[in-house]
Amino acid sequence: MDLGGGRDRVRVAHGSRGGWDMFGPERVVTRAKANVLYELDGRPALQLYKDYLGERAAGLPATGLLFPLAVRASDARERRVVRTILSVDETNQSMTFAGDIPQDALAQLMRANFDRLIQGASDAALGCGGESPVLSLAVSCVGRRLVLGERTEEETEAALELLPAGSSQIGFYSYGEISPYTDGTCDLHNQTMTLTTLHEVA
To answer: In whole angstroms, how far apart are CA 30 and each of 17, 25, 81, 104, 106?
Structure first.
């Protein structure tokens, strides 16, 4: 996208990626309200989640950072958004996420792979550069920071390495990132690295 008129213009580009590994079958969200998930394939969501997590289920909701949910609107739509667990309700066997879970959407569990998370940061930078240096605004989820731990700096370095030589990068950690996936309208993302780059073009 170019902003401004005359000879000098500003080009804005963006990218957003997660890098999580998906596992298990996709399941239909059969009962949900706003950001609370009650049932997947007609089964209590929390119990189903615990079945997959095994011993790690005892640490919920904290261990949920390692196992977010991939959600897409329908089987005809490839674009997925990531949703992170905020809390669990043992009484209702439900889970509250950091973003809405649409009724009848498709959901699939994901798990952390450190190398793929860092590769996801690199992938977010693809298409954000050009031949000239850019200013990159990097917004990463605080959940990624907690998951990556001592490797946190690697994802910001990986994103910067994919940008043109001489580029500068600033940023912060957030509790949700807003960006188009690649194009189209903006979505609320969890657990992603999201970049916005700017540079002047003649």
So the answer is: 27, 15, 18, 6, 9
Q: Under a CB-based contact definition with an 8 Å cutoff, are residues 10 and 199 in contact? A: yes
Over the stretch 59-106, which tens digit does the pLDDT of each residue have?
999 998 899 999 998 766 667 889 999 999 999 999 999 999 999 999
More confident residue, 2 or 69: 69
Helix/strand number for the chain, H first, E second: 4, 15
The pair of three-digit structure tokens given for residue 105, joined into one six-digit string: 């959407």
Backbone angles phi, psi at 27, to 5 degrees: -130, 150
Q: Could you count the other beta carbons within 10 Å of the beta carbon of residue 140?
A: 25
Residues 6+ apart with CB under 8 A from 197: 12, 13, 14, 128, 129, 134, 135, 136, 137, 163, 167
Task: Quote the pTM value.
Answer: 0.80
Only one residue has tokens 């089987």, namely 75
| E strands present in 18-84 | 21-33, 36-40, 43-44, 69-72, 81-83
Q: What are phi and psi of 40, to 5 degrees?
A: -125, 125
Is there a contact between 193 and 138 (Cβ–Cβ < 8 Å)?
A: yes
pLDDT at 138: 94
Residue 82 and residue 65 share a domain: yes
**Which of 66, 93, 111 is the last residue in one of the domains?**
111
Residues 76, 144, single domain; the answer is no
